[in-house]
Every structure is written in structure tokens, then in C-alpha cells.
């Protein structure tokens, strides 16, 4: 439908969305990118939606204030690599270099986001391919290919033809979390569902999967705080 601005300090941009399936007005704040969406049932007039938004203003501002700020990936920023915080520092030579405390990135500061993103994607592909190969061999079922994306709604997926997709941001998480997601998606090669049989396969491949699954639920949205916009 469009976008409106809720006045105040600061003003809040709100996307209006009309849905034929909605039965009531609903307000949603994305913990991933901070976007605010107000959904309207088909016959609810916009003026009623605006009144609802004003009623919820205190709630909305409180949750926005509690949300962690985004982190631009620039020199001096700190971001996790395999769960360990690293400071982005200028580097020498041509290659990005990982040290116990830092990620050293050569070249102009303006190219840092793109270089770091490319380096992280390459490392994510290496780690996810290794984990997928290991779990697929243990299961005795091959996959067809691996694709990396920057998905917001899911950390991985498996298609009926055995294609695995992962979010490359898993490389920011602790290694156990990345390994769990790989085991989860490989398990779908045997069980394309989330039945007790499926979870038994995940446990067979990974072990007790509850802790990394809980980590993703509690901490996963924070991996999207790191902004690689050029």
C-alpha cells in the first residue's frame, strides 16, 4: 500500500500492507532490520489503522529503543568470525588476513565492506561444504549442490532434488551452530519433514541439537546487524 511516517523524535517509517487473509490489525517490528509493518484487513479504513498505530506508539518506541543498533562493516568495527569477535583493521599486501584479535583488510576503506563480505562468503562455503560432505557421507545420501545466499527468513533449506541452500552469515556464528544447520539440512535428504523421524536423523548426525537451535532462536537475528552496504 505504501509508507507513512509516525511523527516524533525520531520519526518512524511504517510500511502499510493490506491483506485479504488478515482478521485484525497487526503491527510487526523486524528484529533483523528494524522495519515496521502495519497490516490491515481488507475492509479496515486507513484512518482506523492510523489510530491503532498511535495507540501502539509507546510500545513501538520501547521495542525500537531496546533493539541493538546495526553495525556498519568499516575499519574499527568489531564483528564475529566463527563466533569470535574480530576488529577490522587496515592490512598489508593483497589478501584479507585473520588473526586471533583482528581481521586485517588491505585496500581503500571504501572497499572494506565488499572485501570482507567476499572473504566471509568464501570461508562460509568452505566450512559448509566440509560439514555437508561429512554429514551426507554419514547418512549415505549425496546432495546435488550447495548455494549460499543472504536470506532473512531461514538459515538453510533442502529441495526434493537434493540441493542445499545456506545463509553465508552462518560463518559469523559459533562453529557448532553452523555444523548443526548443515546436519539439519542434510537430514532432509532422508526426511523431507520435521517429524520425530527427522529429528532422530539430526541427532544421529549431530548429537544433541537443542543448544545450537536455541542459540539461533535467541541470537541469530543479531547476525543480520552487520551491514555490508557499499
UniProtKB/TrEMBL annotation:
Phosphoprotein in keyword set: no
Superkingdom, natural source: Bacteria
Key words of the record: Hydrolase, Metalloprotease, Protease
One of the Pfam families matching this protein, by short name: YgjP-like
Keyword Ion transport: no
InterPro entries: UTP_pyrophosphatase-like (IPR053136), YgjP-like_metallopeptidase (IPR002725)
Top-tier EC class: hydrolase
E.C. number(s) listed in UniProt: 3.4.24.-
GO BP term, example: proteolysis
Domain YgjP-like metallopeptidase residues, every copy: 26-218
Molecular function GO labels: metallopeptidase activity
Protein name (record): Zinc metalloprotease
Amino acid at each position: 500500500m505504501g509508507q507513512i511516517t509516525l511523527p516524533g523524535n525520531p520519526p518512524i517509517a511504517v510500511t502499510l500492507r493490506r491483506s485479504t487473509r488478515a482478521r485484525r490489525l497487526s503491527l510487526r517490528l523486524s528484529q533483523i532490520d528494524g522495519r515496521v509493518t502495519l497490516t490491515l484487513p481488507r475492509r479496515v479504513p486507513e484512518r482506523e489503522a492510523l489510530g491503532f498505530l498511535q495507540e501502539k506508539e509507546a510500545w513501538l518506541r520501547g521495542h525500537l529503543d531496546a533493539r541493538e543498533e546495526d553495525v556498519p562493516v568499516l575499519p574499527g568495527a568489531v564483528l564475529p568470525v566463527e563466533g569470535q569477535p574480530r576488529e577490522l583493521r587496515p592490512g598489508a599486501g593483497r589478501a584479507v588476513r585473520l588473526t586471533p584479535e583482528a581481521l586485517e583488510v588491505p585496500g581503500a576503506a571504501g572497499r572494506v565492506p565488499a572485501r570482507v563480505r567476499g572473504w566471509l562468503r568464501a570461508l562460509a562455503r568452505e566450512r559448509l561444504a566440509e560439514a555437508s560432505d561429512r554429514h551426507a557421507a554419514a547418512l549415505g545420501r549425496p546432495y546435488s549442490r550447495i548455494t549460499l545466499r543472504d536470506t532473512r527468513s531461514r538459515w538453510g533449506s533442502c529441495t526434493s532434488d537434493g540441493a542445499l541452500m545456506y545463509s553465508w552469515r552462518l560463518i559469523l556464528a559459533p562453529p557448532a551452530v553452523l555444523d548443526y544447520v548443515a546436519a539439519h539440512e542434510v537430514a532432509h535428504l532422508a526426511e523431507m519433514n520435521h517429524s520425530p523421524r527427522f529429528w532422530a536423523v539430526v541427532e544421529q548426525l549431530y548429537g544433541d541439537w537443542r543448544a545450537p537451535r536455541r542459540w539461533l532462536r535467541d541470537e541469530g537475528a543479531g547476525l543480520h546487524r552487520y551491514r555490508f552496504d557499499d
